[in-house]
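Quick start: read one record
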Amino acid sequence: MRQSHLNKHILWEVRNVNDRAVALLEQYDVEVLRTRKGRGVILCDTSNGLLVFKEYEGNEAKLTLLDRLLSAIKERDMVAAERLIPTREGALCVRENDGTAYILKTCGEGRECNIHDYGECMEAVRTLARLHQCMLLPSREDIPAPMEFSPLQEYEKHNREFVKVQRFLRKKSQKTLFEYNLLGCIDHFIEQAREVTEGWRSYEERMADPSGQETYAFCHGDYQYHNILCGEQGMYIVNFEKCVRDRQIRDLYLLMRKLLEKTDWPTALGRELIAAYEKVTPISAYAYIDLYYRLAYPEKFWKIVNFYYNSGKAWIPQRNQEKLDKLLAQEQQKSDFLEKVFQL
């Protein structure tokens, strides 16, 4: 009975929160016909078609940049992508009394990209190459460009976290099997991470970044199959909230890493993904080296370590061990892939 009462209470709270959020839609110049729950969003059937209403955690300056990027993509008309819907007053977000912000966006009809479909994977890469051509924004004095993301600084932070967890595991008196296994391989990955970081730093010190001074390159920031919808009209790209000023090879790296990890790092697939991108948008020698170092860094291992360290340790999910086992089983395959594709 207590559990049943608790479930009803939670359900009431969820409905209450959703009702308050839906009430904010009255600030938009759209007629909402019906709302339904989606994955972390509220789907709205409206007089303007299907729209997505979702919570937004960024700041309003980032939202202004996002709107500028999505407008540029729309103007170039090379890729179908979501758009932000402003309120009647022209605001890009609305807020509840507690300050929680929400945004309203267009939504494409379709299913998620199938990562096991070779043709869809190739089309996703070609779509990305066209998208990148739309995400080069000219500098403007009235809108300062955000600081460029530094992968090196990010990886140096990861490296420090590796050492922190290593020390924690060494000091822990009672370890689970997963913790023993993690401690047993962490030295290898710490060394690997340091070698990649130092190699990349050395390369950047010797080579000047050839990126232009009159334009700023931006990335989607989360270009993976969840955010690529496939429909009758082709691919439709959504969820640009993680857009960032970075070298655009970042998006290709993320998509490639996801696909290669799920297929045991096949050399042929890697080469074909790179070739598909280059047929639309050339990859400079500088960006090619950038792609190598991003792929070489043990990002997947860092994710496993980070999830473990920042979660409760009274009970460690079996899934943690399964992910670690798969990563270790793929280490040689990944090493062979990097050597053959990048001709080390």
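The two ends are 64 Å apart (CA to CA).
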